[in-house]
Design a protein that fits this description.
Largest sheet: 2 strands, antiparallel
Bound molecules: iron/sulfur cluster
Shape: globular
Order of helices and strands: EHEEHE
Number of helices: 2
Structural class: alpha+beta
Strand order of the largest sheet: 1-4
Oligomer: single chain
Distance between the termini: 9 Å
Radius of gyration: 11 Å
Strand content: 15-25%
C-alpha cells in the first residue's frame, strides 16, 4: 500500500504523526513528510487510522494491485 499526503490541504495539525510516527513526520517548519511512502503490513492499521484522523482528509492510501 502506498500512502500519499496532499500538501496543498495539509494544515500541519500533526494528527498523523501522532497516530503513525513511523510513516509521517513534521519538520521544524511544520511541513509534513511521508517518511515511509510504501507502507508495510505491520504499519497499515496505524496508517489507516492516521488517514481517518486527518482533519482535512489530506491522506490517501493507494492499494497495491
Ligand atoms: S493529519 Fe492531515 S493535516 Fe494533520 S499533519 Fe497529517 S496530513 Fe497534515
Amino acid at each position: 500500500v502506498k500512502v500519499h499526503a496532499d500538501m496543498t490541504r495539509c494544515i500541519g495539525s500533526g494528527m498523523c504523526t501522532t497516530m503513525a510516527p513511523e510513516v509521517f513526520e513534521l519538520d521544524d517548519s511544520g511541513t509534513l513528510h511521508v517518511t515511509t511512502p510504501q507502507v508495510s503490513p505491520d504499519l497499515l492499521d496505524a496508517t489507516r487510522q492516521a488517514a481517518a484522523c486527518c482533519p482535512v482528509g489530506a491522506i490517501s492510501l493507494l492499494e497495491d494491485e
